[in-house]
Design goal:
Region (Disordered): 434-539
Biased composition (Basic and acidic residues): 488-504
Strand order of the largest sheet: 3-2-4-1-5-6-7-8
Distance between the termini: 45 Å
EC number: 3.6.5.4
Main location: cytoplasm
Number of strands: 8
Order of helices and strands: HHHHHEHEHEHEHEHEHEEHHHHHHHHHHH
Largest sheet: 8 strands, mixed
InterPro entries: AAA+_ATPase, P-loop_NTPase, Signal_recog_part_SRP54_M_sf, Signal_recog_particl_SRP54_hlx, Signal_recog_particle_SRP54_M, SRP, SRP54, SRP54_GTPase_dom
Amino acid sequence: MFNSLSDRLTSTFKNLRGKGRLSEADVDATIREIRRALLDADVALPVVRTFTGNVRERALSSEVSAALNPGQQVVKIVNDELVSILGGQTRRLQFAKRPPTVIMLAGLQGAGKTTLAGKLAHWLKSEGHRPMLVAADLQRPNAVNQLQIVGERAGAYTYAPEPGNGVGDPVKVATDAIGVAKSKLHDVVIVDTAGRLGIDEVLMQQAADIRAAVNPDEVLFVIDAMIGQDAVQTAEAFLEGVDFTGVVLSKLDGDSRGGAALSVAQVTGKPIMFASTGEGMKDFEQFHPDRMADRILDMGDILTLIEQAEKTFDQEQTQKLAKKVQAGEDFDLNDFLTQMAAVKKMGSLKKMIGMMPGMSQYKEQLEAFDEREIDRVEAIVKSMTPQERTNPKILNGSRRARIAKGSGTTVTQVNQLMERFAAAQKMMRQMGKGGGMPGMGGQPGGAPGMGGMPGMGGLPGAPGGRGPSRKKKGKKGKAAGKSGNPAKRAEQEKLAQLKREGKEPTPTGSAFGNLGLDKDEDIDLSKLPKGFGGIFGKD
C-alpha cells in the first residue's frame, strides 16, 4: 500500500547523500517534496502540516548541523516523526482481570468487520486464548451466516441465537453472550456489530446501546485503509458516537495510497492496534508504529520476519539441523524439504522478501516472481528416491531425466536446482566451520538473488539473480568432438581414461551415458571435466 509514498521519500533522500552540510534551501526543498508525497498519499492536511513543521524545525537545528552525516540524520528525523504520527508506541490489548474480556467491533459497512472478527479470533487462539464470536449484526443479509463460516475457519465458537436478516435484538444477543461465554469457559468475547453504507444516527445509537449493555474492555474501530481523506471524518464521527479505544486497519494490502493509516491515529488520538494484510486468516498482525515507519522508508521489517519464523519453524527440527551442520554433516535434500515446508507455512514469499531492507528497488522483479516456484522445487525433490535425497551425488543423466518426467519439469530445471543446492551445501559447511554465510554481501540477509536458497534462483534482474536463461558461450580451448551434454561428456572422458589405462570397456547402450552406477557406486569426481563437479557439491 505504501509503495508510492516509499518510492517518493526514498527518491527525495537520495538528493541529500554525500552532502557534508545542509543549507536552509536544501532543507526547504526536501520538506517540499515530503509535503507533496504525503498529500499525494491522501494524508490529512492538518497531519501533513504538523509533520512537515516538526521535521523542518528539527532539520534546521543543531542535531543536523553537528551530525557527521546530515543526510542520514534527516532520514532519522523523518523516521521519528512517522513513528509519532502512527501512534508512537505499540498498543496491546488490555485483558479483563476477571474473564471474559469483551471486545466490540464498530465501523462502516464494507470495512471488513466480520472477516476481521474471525482473524482476530484466530490470532487470539494462537496466543493461547479461547475466543468466542458473537453475531450481533442482525440487519445485513447473511451477516450471521458469514460470521459462522468465518468462525469455523478460525476454529472459534460462534454464538448466533438469532437468524438475522432484520430479525432479533442485537443488544439482547450481546448481553446474553457474556453469560454463555462464562458457562463455556471462553476468556475472550468478540462482538460483531452492524454497519451502514454511511454514518447515521440509527447506527450510532445501536452501537452506543450495545456498548452500554456489555461494557466492553476494548472497542475497536475497523476502518478501510483505502478510503483516503474520508477516513478522518469517519473516525471523528465514530469517536464521538462510540468512543472507541483503538483502531484496526483492514485491507492494508491494497494498492491505494494509504493516507488513512497515517492520519487516523494523529487526528483521533487513539492508537492503531492491528492491521489486516491479506485475505487469509493468518494475514493479520499486531501494529507496530516503528516497524511500519521502517517499511515506509524502505528500511525493512526484520523483527516481524523473525517473529513469523519463530512461530512457523519447529524448534526441535531447527536445533537438530544446527547440530548436524556443526558436526560437519552435509545438508541433504531431506533437510531442504523440511525447510521449504516451513517457508511455505510462513505465507507469501513476496511479502517475506519485501520485508528485507532496500527491496523497493527490486519492486518490479518481486512482482514478476512466481510463487509457484516453491511448488515446482518441492515436486522435483519429492520425485527423488530416499537414497537420491540423502546422496545427491548419484544423480546421473538418466536419474535426472526420470525426476524431471516425474515432477513435470525439465532436465534443465532439475540441473539448476542441483547447482543451487550445491551452493547451499557449501554455505552450510562454511557456517559449520564458523565462517559465516558466503555470498551475503549487499543487502542484509542476502535478499537480492536469494542465491543461497535452492530453488530460489534469484529475482530476475536483481544482483545475484539468474534472470532469463541464456546460452553459455563455449569455453576457449574446448576439444573438438566432445559432447555438449554433461553426462555424455563425462562418459567420453571415462572411456578415454580407460583406454589410456589399457582397459577396454563393454558398451552399455545407455541413451544418457552410463557412469558405472549400476551398483550405486559414487561418481569418481576427479575424472569429470573441469567445473562439472560443482553440480555435485564439489569445487
